[in-house]
Amino acid sequence: YQRRVRELPISTMPRCALLLSILLLPVVSIAASVREWTVPEVAAWVTERHLGDALLSGVLENQINGKLLLWLDPQVLQSDFGIEDSADIMAALGELQTDAMGKMDFWEQRKLARRQVTHLCWLLFAAPRFAIRHIGALPVYARPANPIGGWIEWLLIPEYYLYLNADNILGGLPGFMPWILLAQMLAKMLALAGAAMNGLPKLGWQVAKQVGAGVLSAGVVWICMLLIWPITPWFISDLFFYLSVYVFPLVTCIMQAVSMIALLGSAMAVKALPKRS
Fold first, then answer.
1. Higher confidence at residue 145 or residue 43?
2. pLDDT digit string (tens) for 184-213?
3. In angstroms, rounded to a whole number, what is the distance separating the alpha carbons of residues 67 and 31?
4. Cβ of 32: how many Cβ atoms within 10 Å?
5. How far apart are the first and last CA of the chain?
């Protein structure tokens, strides 16, 4: 009897391992297959779990596939899907989410959170100081690991932080967006240098103008996102989005270059004036 008792754990170990693998197999296969779900399959899952018409409508309108489904969070559900109470949804998603979700690129994140990404992209070039504040509210996977260097950097050249972290913002800013940020940073630095040549009051006035323009631009963007964006057809919204990413920043760079040249010319003209005896 004692011999059989001692042998029992050894003989039952393979059976226990087999039973454990059978129990875990559905979980592993579900986690692996979720990323391959199509939009109709995600919609079918939402319907099967009775997660609400708001989520179902958002899945269909935003073309949320299995990979994007795993990245949904309460902030996206509230801002882009209009779902205030997402506890049941997040509990259901918790059963699907794994450590192997992968990394979303910029366009996948825009498909997931169209409103949030559109708002941020407009702020990046129109009001970079407010864009940095907006980035701090993004999910962990969509924002840089390190915060901005300090308030002086935020006040004078916020584009420096945005340019250095362009690969980590929203999965990586696309196209020549990082280079536009670099051009804006250089133009702003030269404008500040030109103002500083005329004395500290001119420099202070230049900084005040830049901050004031940013506040005004952020207000305009906020009003557009609040009142105009919700009633704008998606194809028009997409058109303005691409313009804001690829065209409007170039116009801003040209305007800043003209302003910089004007400031440098003014500074040189002041230096060239004969001194009064």
1. 43
2. 898 888 888 888 888 888 889 989 999 999
3. 11
4. 11
5. 119
| Exposure letters 91-101 (e unless 16+ CB within 10 A, then b) | ebbeebeeeeb
Give residues with Cβ within 8 angstroms of 59, minimum separation 6.
Answer: 39, 42, 43, 46, 69
Question: DSSP label at 100?
Answer: T
Token representation of residue 27: 């979980």
Within 35-172, where are the H helices?
39-48, 53-62, 66-69, 74-79, 87-94, 106-112, 114-126, 128-135, 151-156, 158-164
* Cβ atoms of residues 37 and 29 within 8 Å: no
Q: Using one digit for the tens of pLDDT, what is the confidence trace for 135-183? A: 988 877 788 878 888 888 999 999 999 999 999 999 899 877 888 888 8
Token pair recorded at residue 236:
């028009």
Q: How far apart are the C-alpha atoms of 256 and 269, rounded to whole Å?
A: 20
**Which of 137, 16, 21 has the alpha carbon at shortest distance from 75?**
137
Cβ-based neighbour number of residue 19 at 10 Å: 11
Measured CA to CA, the distance from residue 192 to residue 195 in angstroms comes to: 5
